[in-house]
Prior knowledge:
Layout: H1 18-26, E1 28-33, E2 38-40, E3 49-54, E4 56-62, E5 68-75, E6 79-80, H2 82-87, E7 94-97, E8 101-106, H3 108-117, H4 119-145, H5 148-160, E9 164-166, E10 169-172, H6 178-185, H7 189-201, E11 205-208, E12 211-214, H8 217-226
Antiparallel strand pairs: 1-8, 2-7, 3-6, 3-8, 4-5, 4-7, 9-10, 10-12, 11-12
Helix pairs in contact: 3-4, 5-6, 5-8, 6-7
Amino acid sequence: MSDPASLRGITLFAGLSDADLATVAASCTVRTFEKQAQILGEQEQTTDLFFILDGTVRATSYTEAGREVIFNEFHAGEMIGEFSAIDGRPRSSSVIAVTDCKLARMTRDRFLQVLEGNGKLAVRLAQHLVGKIRQLSERVFEVSALAVRERIRRELLRLSKDGTEFRNGIVIRPAPTHYEIAARIGSHREAVTREFNRLEAAGIVEVRRRQLRIIDIGKLQASEDHGV
């Protein structure tokens, strides 16, 4: 990889010296993927690590009946494939390019060598993994204990963090489909559609072409307590 500066936006490498970043860059190769291309396959016997330089990717899995489960989406600055890069086991999910993407790729052996030689990087990776465990715990609780209405509310609040503010609300672009939201929260499209109809009637959200408007984020945040 000829340009270490392109790795400056990767969260894991924040604060690395120019020399350390150059060492990391020398161990990476860059590859582009077109929208909808598969980057990793579930149970694939590969262990390389990827850093997202540009674009968005999605980690997903399918049940035997063909039902899709969306685990998460990852954007520029994040990494994917770290589980297999650490434990050497097969991939736990498939990863698909949501947009055209550019990724930097590092082999597992080289990644472990970099970690062994840089304590700060190892600590930052540990913090990253703890954050993922916390997210997983939150998701397990939601699917196990909460009704679909509350799971949708929480998912909309998560999506709003990457949205654009306007007046008292948030615009989310592109708008996720009802199918995608259902696959994120462990429900089905019909239930999500019914809840969105209710939220629109209550003046909380507005769905337009390729964008979702949360008209009043405060009202959405308070909707559980007030039964809106």
